[in-house]
Amino acid sequence: MARTGTLIEAVMTDIESKIASRAYLPNTRLPSVRAQAKAMQVSVSTVVEAYDRLVAEGSIVSRPGAGFYTSGHIAPLDLNQIGPKVAREIDPLWVSKESLEAAPDSLMPGCGWLPSEWLYQTGIKRALRHLARSNSPNLTEYASPKGSLAFRQFLQRRLLGLNIEASSEQIMLTESGTHAIDLIGRFLLSPGDTVLVDDPCYFNFHALLKAHRVNIVGIPYTPNGPDIECFERALAEYQPRLYLTNSGVHNPTGAHLSHSVAHRLLTLAKASELVIVEDDIFADLETTRAPRLAALDGLDQVIEIGSFSKTVSASVRCGYIAAKRDWIEQLVDLKIATTFSGNRLDSEIVLQTLTDSGYRKHMEKLHGWLAKQRISVSKQLISLGIEPWIQPKDGMFLWCRLSTGTNATQLAQDCLSKGVVLAPGNVFSQSQSAHDYLRFNVAQCTDPKIFDVLKIALRQQI
Amino acid sequence: MARTGTLIEAVMTDIESKIASRAYLPNTRLPSVRAQAKAMQVSVSTVVEAYDRLVAEGSIVSRPGAGFYTSGHIAPLDLNQIGPKVAREIDPLWVSKESLEAAPDSLMPGCGWLPSEWLYQTGIKRALRHLARSNSPNLTEYASPKGSLAFRQFLQRRLLGLNIEASSEQIMLTESGTHAIDLIGRFLLSPGDTVLVDDPCYFNFHALLKAHRVNIVGIPYTPNGPDIECFERALAEYQPRLYLTNSGVHNPTGAHLSHSVAHRLLTLAKASELVIVEDDIFADLETTRAPRLAALDGLDQVIEIGSFSKTVSASVRCGYIAAKRDWIEQLVDLKIATTFSGNRLDSEIVLQTLTDSGYRKHMEKLHGWLAKQRISVSKQLISLGIEPWIQPKDGMFLWCRLSTGTNATQLAQDCLSKGVVLAPGNVFSQSQSAHDYLRFNVAQCTDPKIFDVLKIALRQQI
After folding, report:
1. Chain A (45-84) residues lying within 8 Å, Cβ to Cβ, of chain B
2. What is the pLDDT of residues B378-392, one digit of tens each?
3. Strand order across the B171-174 sheet
4. Which of A58, B69, B324, B457 is deepest in the core (most CB within 10 A)?
5. Residue in B closest to A114 by C-alpha
6. ipTM over 0.90
7. Which of the residues B134, B239, B341, B362 would you substitute to probe the A interface, choosing the one with the greatest number of A C-beta atoms within 10 Å?
8. Which CATH number is correct for B88-117+359-461, 1.20.1600.10, 3.90.1150.10, 1.10.150.130, 3.30.2130.10?
């Protein structure tokens, strides 16, 4: 059916996209014509015409005396249909797949993990040999609902070192850090809720939150944490349900939350119903301790999660959630219902590796390598006119600004064709305001070819 | 506020439970007073009074000119608040936790897995030793989006052995069988959809589907598969989105789908929009091949899933989904968004174990052990007046009926206090019509104490 009349068409498109993204669920009553007209600031007759045409097209049905309803069955959930269309180079799912599928000889200065040879492989191998010699139930049996008690007791001590007090009953193991956030999302969020993230933030937060069909609002990130005035305004404007952030080393900026921002943030959260999820995935890369919101809050409104995929292994999956006791009990039920049991063998390998006497020494060496690389890579980037936003104290990331007029997305396209995978700024930015930024992983920048390719690609852009 | 008037109170309770279970989402318009009255078959004035009181209690808000809305924030998702309250002995989540947390010296004739020593531990240990000697990216690096190509090619050949044609691009690895079903649920289902399950069926299907907030309808299971007349009526009455079943050995009955029921089932499904998920978790326990719906259908409306937790290890997590190509692509996106990457090390251990030359021989021995135990346990149960519903050809389960007047839930309570964990029939039954059934796992029935405890508990019931 041909569509005429800009307003009617706009109303139809808006409703169809709400159906596609499941903002309107199937078999659900649409707002009344009057309410819809008010909400969309169009006339009642425009909505009447739009509804009638959508009925004719089969997208919605009219139930006499009861109003208009979405039709029964909808297309399967397609994450690519949710939210505005963006270039694939800044689409979180495309970037993830590109990194995960990259050919073994690709250069990946944009990727978010350490090269294999920088990880403590000796410890993992020792754990495997040890398990191969045992007749332990760890080899074959289901995990207990919360996961290994020994691991939870280890995490209890580890959290105490961050001034977070949690009993082992307040800790649950998960398959990964992402799985931890996903479970919390299923527990706390409903479609249409608002979630605050840092802008920029880890890009898979965007994809994950899309799958929960929530509104994502980015809070500008400063070198000391989220911009507290923006945070306060967002609380008032959106009544967000959740704020999802990194503790310790921030991804992608490498910044640390300051004590004063942490305190103000938590004071604001306390005055609202906001829950904060603090993702502590980079804890073992920290060289100076940033404050943890969960330590200040005592695991009341703050949930601490983490994993070891950045420091032990990304192939051996193990994450955790620390939260208040009754939430953990409900999260355990949700975990059983949706995964039945955790990956017990993986958690045992990770625990043995973390408690191996060589792990701490390996981390110290790793800190040294990273410090050296941060300086070396900074220098090389600066010589190309690419300026680090800050000089991070620790971690693997450099968040860098391109010189005026250079477009990071275009640069990423050009470099990809030469086998160099970059991470353009807007993939991290909900507001799409980081078009002239790139995230570099200094540990993945040891090959001089990266800088040669960058140099040529930058020259072509001018 | 005191509640008077039975009907008003009933309407209020119904609405409150819909809010608690998220059938009504937060910040969402309630049905109009007129529509609600019609739906609940009460007068308009009853609904007006119920809405007014709910506004006074703060559960809903009135927006002048726009109707009544659920309020903004809701309590976290509590699976125990969804659906009718049942005794803990037949509550799927309670039974799962009881089995997963059971003390090492408990006797567990009701549990759904094999004892460790019946599994192929030699193969798992060999895989661990082999990996410990390697410098493989399997130790530390993220999995590719679909998971190991070698594993997917192995599954391709394996599926072909079941007459299911799937390319390796139509297969995606998951963390487990439950994770596979959960991803498909997130992909295809919306809250309020109807899903058909077998009655009885694997009890965690109930808990899983609760987490998706769908209506669950049970189809009586016969020794040849689901009752086809009931299936046809349910299709007409509920327009279900999904039918979730076992292929091969059925849990809990040990029955096989017959060729004629498979054909009629699929013919009915083809005439509707129904998607069928076939969980092939017991494939390696089959001694005579049952038909696979996915083989008849060619992975059009049928999705095949499986895992190796019953035959390789429950501690090493690995499952898979085989489906049509475009669905797999969208499921990959959903997997990345919600778990980022799969457990690569686990999938490598499982692949090495499955392709170890000793695996097939071990399975043959296992088939012999199970056959012997099915006969021995049947005899002992019959002598106690507990009758197997059928004599299964294969697998570990005996679905048994108690003599008249005996209540399985009560029996489970009595035996639990003596350290014997049973699986009472109603935990498997959506219609709660299996109060006089128990599921026995013959592999967990080697200790004569089980039958002594049963004998005494049965005597006490009379």
Report:
1. 65-67, 72-74, 76-80
2. 999 999 999 999 999
3. B171-174, B319-322, B302-307, B275-279, B242-246, B194-199, B215-222, B225-226
4. B457
5. B141
6. no
7. B341
8. 3.90.1150.10
